[in-house]
Amino acid sequence: MTVMEFNPIIEVLEEAYEIPHLNATRKISAVLPHNYYETEKRYPVLYLQDGQNLFNPLAPYGDWAIDKSMAKLAKEGHGDLIIIAVDHGEKERINEYLPYYHPRFGEGKGNFYIQFMIEKLIPYINSHYRTLTDFENTGIGGSSMGGLISLHAGLKNPGIFGKMMIFSPSLWISKTVFNHTKSFKPLAESKIYLYAGGKESIEHLPNATKLGGIIKEKMVKGYNIDFHFSINEQGSHAEVHWREEFPLAVKWLYF
């Protein structure tokens, strides 16, 4: 069979899904295994931010091409995963993905965004698709600000998101994230995949390394965390590198 025969099914849940917590609407899509409607299986789920950049080759900055990656993974026998892509808020993106106060951006709405995911979106997905609903089968991820809000969500909700796919997180925006990482107490084994590029900014890799060090310290102290830190010394802050990292992270987190 060719890779194309394993192409995932992409469904738009709604073009304007209501987010009452933000007084906004967003396009939300589901990326389903190619044979989803031919089986009775239940699948783990990964909630990804910045849906516009995940499988649209015409996206302004390029895309992650997760549809192509999932087809290749499925051909290898690693395609049993549902991905939910939540579009960002365009001009509101930074504010909606910001979970802390920032002197330039003000009081972020990130906590309301995560509240929406936990209270409305996740129950909706679990009722409309055949999902595995437990902690170890529910993941969250994203890049840049999407990576920051995903990390925050995982740290602050240890009983909900068992897997975190954190690419090039915007750690510069607040030192609070380091404090939250230090106080993080996973209820069961948490899997964290952290990626950073060496050419993103002067402070990016040092910040990511600091974050990784805190996580490793917690592991030494006996906290139930499985952690992988991937560094691309030539990596810039760009979709092309997150595209390369995505299938590696999916395999490590889920298979």
UniProtKB/TrEMBL annotation:
InterPro entries associated with the record: Esterase-like, Mycobacterial_A85_antigen
Keyword set, alphabetical order: Hydrolase
GO MF annotations in UniProt: hydrolase activity
Coiled coil location: none
UniProt protein name: Alpha/beta hydrolase
